[in-house]
Amino acid sequence: MIKKEKVVLAYSGGLDTSIILKWLQNERNLDVVTYTADVGQGSEIDEAKKKAKQLGVKEIFVDDLKEEFARDFVFPMFRANALYEGCYLLGTSIARPLIAKKQLEIAKKVRAKYVSHGSTGKGNDQIRFELGYYSNNPKIKVIAPWREWKFKSRNELIDYAQKFQIPIPKDKIDSPPYSMDSNLLHTSYEGKVLEDPWKAPDESMFIRTKSCEDAPDKPHYLTIEFKMGDPISLDGKKLSPFRIISRLNEIGGENGVGRLDIVENRFIGMKSRGVYETPGGEILLIARRAIESITLDKESAHLKDELMPKYAELIYNGFWFSPEREMLQKLIDQSQKLVSGFVKLKIYKGNVIILGRKSNQTLYSPEMATFEEDLVYNQSDADGFIKLNALRLKLLKNRR
Known about the structure:
5-stranded parallel β-sheet, elongated, Argininosuccinate synthetase, chain A, domain 2
């Protein structure tokens, strides 16, 4: 009997990857090894393991990556205050390189020739996964079923699932579902009614955040301590990176913080409407900018803001392991060495309000900034400063 080649499948336990699992077994005659990364998505981890067993998988790997995800991926990204196209906190994008890297480690362990994922041929995730694979193992062979199989509709997928006794949730049969992705940092939604950018999402769709109307009438007060750009404690209690984001998610979600509805430009060129819940991320971003405002000098802060769109785009497009992202990361991390101190916040009905910030490394000088009488700043010095800066403009005007 000829031994089958192995493929390691990034397996979520959902309908699509379950169909892919069976397709790899049936159509490609491969021995499927499943890999499920726990990056904070919750209860579906146990369900994925159970389904893999039901579908005849002998080698099932599940990794708890929550702390590594928060410490080595989310926190470094937040040091850059990264926002794609000015608003998206990159919740899906930042998880893919970690999953790809760990998936390859499993492939090496089980001596698998192939890896596979469940991303469609229209989206960004296929690029993120595969750039992650090739960056870490240039010789790996990738199977992308959505780009290879003959299925032309969701009904054909449902028929295939029924034929091979793959469990199908009821909401997947009658209509196309929301395409959802969830991890520690966020939950995202695409598809269904969201494909019409004029139609608002149903309130019942949201699983992490209350609406502003249903949020408590009393504000939540919070103090975050930062050290070298990273949050290290909430209200004086030291917590691990995973625990900090988890707690911020709870606070933000309860108080209606973190919803975002955008039409974004995918890497492959098309526009896509997505709705996101990133409660802890929104709180963290606002608090981080507050502590940077008193600890970073003007030119360092402005340079960071200039570089941020490029950094965010690299992550969005799947280039986490690229030399240019690593170069930018070193510059960003250098800027954070003295970004330490405390930020005081009020969280209220969808708003994150800065109440105060303080640091032993502050560059803010009350003596300099005061409108009252002071002994440290000679206002007449501004006269020469203005005239020197105006010289170029005067010369331009005279030439005209």
